[in-house]
Amino acid sequence: MIVLASGSPRRRQLLEMIGLQFRVVPPDVDETLGPAEQAEGYVTRLACDKARTVAAREGGAVVLAADTTVVLRGGIFGKPATPKEAEAMLRRLAGRMHQVMTAVAVAQDGRVEHALDVTDVTFRRLTDEQIAAYVATGEPLDKAGAYAIQGKGAALVEGIRGDFFGVMGLPLRLALELLERFGVTYRFTR
CA-based, 20 to 30 A from 27: which of 4, 64, 76, 105? Predict the structure, then answer.
């Protein structure tokens, strides 16, 4: 059994989907973007901080953590604080390609390894009415970039190039590769 250092229901759902045994210990880390921090470094730092923080409290446990952000032309789109902020983000993403960056980290007893997934997502052109209607569902408010590709936000997407699960918040192939380095081998049957 591993420890998932995340409060994300999507990450829990993905691990449950593949049948991995885990328990959840939400991390408590500062997610403030540093003044000169770039997106790749930011998500990687947060994933590693989450994994380290929980591993320090859970001696001997193998801890899996991740962090996701949306990037458009160097600008980082975190989780919107208000519906107005969600609408503004979606207006900027509409009709454009952006990147979804998800860093994954695994920690145990002071050792940390990490990897980064970058997936290109292209949005359809959207009207202000479509954006307002999507925001009114409430779905965008706890999602990086103000959308959930696995939910109603799928209707915003024209296409993706990369890892769908990375866009959801946990690129399973990277998570399984990192876990294997810590002796956690995935098996289809138990």
Answer: 76
For residue 26, being part of any structural domain is answered with: yes
Q: How far apart are CA 114 and CA 141, in angstroms?
A: 27
In a domain, 188, yes or no: no
Active site residue ranges: 67
User: In this structure, what CATH number is given to the domain that contains residue 169?
Assistant: 3.90.950.10
Q: Which domain holds residue 155?
A: 2-181
Number of C-beta neighbours around residue 107 at 10 A: 29
For 44, 81, 114, 157, the CA distances from 123, given in Å and listed in that order, are: 25, 21, 29, 4
pLDDT in tens, 44-80: 999 999 999 999 999 999 999 999 999 999 999 989 9
Domain count, the chain: 1
Complete DSSP assignment for 32-91: PPPTT--HHHHHHHHHHHHHHHHHHHSTT--EEEEEEEEEETTEEE---SSHHHHHHHHH
Neighbouring-strand partners of residue 120: 99, 161
